[in-house]
Amino acid sequence: MRLLLAGDDRAAVSALRSAVGAAGAIAAACTAEPADVVAVVAADPPDAVVAIGGNAGTLRTALDPLGLDMGPEVLAVEEIIDGGGAFGTTAARRLRALVERRALRARQTELEAIVAAQAVSRRRHDEEGALDTLRRLALAAEYRDDNTHEHTQRVGELAARLARHLGHEDRTVWLVRQVAPLHDVGKIAIPDTVLLKPGKLTREEFEVVKTHAVLGARVLADGKSEVLGVAERIARSHHERWDGSGYPDGLAGEAIPLEARLVHVADVFDVLVHERPYKEAWSVEDAAGELRAGAGTQFDPAAIAAFDELGAGSWTTG
Ligand SMILES: [Fe+2]
Ligand SMILES: [Fe+2]
């Protein structure tokens, strides 16, 4: 066992040092000055610091300023010397027990950190697997649609930028970016005659197209990862409207999942500014005007405000 004796009374320090040595421990010594103790501990960490002169509390704070229960145990000399004032075998045993308890606590903290790190790594692993599957699914969906890979990626990019601008956590922004491209995955199940039809759809055909939201959500349902959960919410609710007149559930306002509200704005904008079999490409200004006009009815007003603040001009790429 290695002790650091911190005290300004040289005679007391020296006497304790011999007693400690006789009891089989190794003792170094320094002044009771906190800066001195911190420097000696940093250079050669002992198992425990023994404060001689009633400043154990000050030294404890100096050595562990954040109260993280780290560094060596700090004991007042009164805690370890015998009733008779000597450092005998009882004192040595008591000191050893204290040091061991400290070491055990440190080991426990270390083990907890390892368990937490393993949980994070397992989650990352699961998530990677889910994302890999989702990307393949998105690719399959893109083969079925009239658009290219670029539309879904642009929607992911814009929705994530809106989320970031609205101050959402990095994790939310990342999730939106990853899974927004899957918003139309349900179109896999929509017949070509309807999906690829040039010109206007009949009422019945439009009803068929509308089923892509529920079908997509069904494909993504009951996933175990958070990624799949967000993907499912987006697939199901990206055609809901702020005023409750959207589909498939007629949700309104904040009852519509946030991620889906953002994807709705991004999706509509991107479709407007690009050519489709049934329409010409709109100018960015016209599309932005359409979005503004729909704030509070079709779109989440906060999302439209974020869109405006970001500047419609920044969405012209692609
Ligand atoms: Fe859709
Ligand atoms: Fe889309």
Structure description:
The chain is α/β, with parallel strands linked by helices and 318 residues long. It is built from 13 helices and 4 strands. Helix content is 59%, strand content 6%. It has helices at residues 10-22, 34-43, 56-63, 77-80, 89-144, 149-165, 170-179, 192-195, 203-220, 226-237, 258-273, 284-293, 301-310; strands at residues 2-7, 26-30, 48-52, 73-76. Strand 1 (2-7), helix 1 and strand 2 (26-30) form a beta-alpha-beta unit. The chain is elongated, with a radius of gyration of 33 Å. Strands 2-1-3-4 form a 4-stranded parallel β-sheet, sandwiched between helices. It starts with a strand and ends in an 8-residue tail after the last helix. The longest helix has 56 residues, at 89-144. The protein binds fe (ii) ion (2 copies). One fe (ii) ion binds next to helix 6.
Key features?
single chain; 318 residues; alpha/beta; 4-stranded parallel sheet; binds fe (ii) ion
Query: What's the overall average pLDDT, rounded?
Result: 88
How far is it from the N-terminal to the C-terminal residue, by CA? 68 Å
- Helical percentage: 55-70%
Q: What is the 3D form?
A: elongated
Largest sheet: spatial strand order: 2-1-3-4
Alpha plus pi helix count: 13
Number of strands: 4
Query: What pattern of helices and strands is seen along the backbone?
Result: EHEHEHEHHHHHHHHHH
Tell me about the biggest sheet? 4 strands, parallel
Low-confidence stretches: none
Give the percentage of residues in beta strands. 5-15%
Alpha-carbon Rg, integer: 33 Å
Structural class comes to: alpha/beta
- Which small molecules are bound? fe (ii) ion
